[in-house]
Amino acid sequence: MSYFIWQDSYELGIEIVDTQHKKLVDLISDLLQSSILNHDNQKVEDILQQLVKYTEYHFAEEEKLMIESNFPKFEEHQMIHQSFVEKVNEFYMKFTRKEIALEIQILNYLKNWLINHILITDKEFATFYLNYKSIQ
């Protein structure tokens, strides 16, 4: 059973972004499997590191689309991205220094942040971007 399952309501209609969001959903679900269910700290560390790198990659790709389309809320959206990357990095660093365990509260934070970001902030951008593409 998966902790975090992709739902059609998360679809933005921008294939590259939707594919990357699915990967983030999978990584967060893998974290639950490795941490809470299997207690495999090395695997958790590896997945957290992947999550940090993939989140940075995904946000950079998404921000390229924002720049391409002159999205008016680019800077605001970019700051939201930056804040999340810093938070995930913080979890990773604290976990590797054994200052925290990856508990369900952290997993719920990651899951809920991503859901809210997709459904609110990214949907707003997607609407703008798809309109921009339709008049190009």
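Above is the first protein from milestone M3; the second protein from the same milestone is given next.
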Amino acid sequence: MNTRTIGMVRPARNRQSVLAYLGAALHTYRQRRALARLDDAALRDIGLSQAEAATESSRPIWDVPGYWR
């Protein structure tokens, strides 16, 4: 492989990883907004208190557990 080929391949990988990151961030944002809208009965069904749901839904989109990555 010459440097020209390497230069052409590398941006595609970076673009995919950026798109994957943005997709995951959008997904996390939507999940947290949905969690914030749940009522007390729904939160009891999933085993969360109102305080736990509020804490989780207020976290920034890049703040996710390591096992999600």
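Note on the second protein: The radius of gyration is 19 Å.
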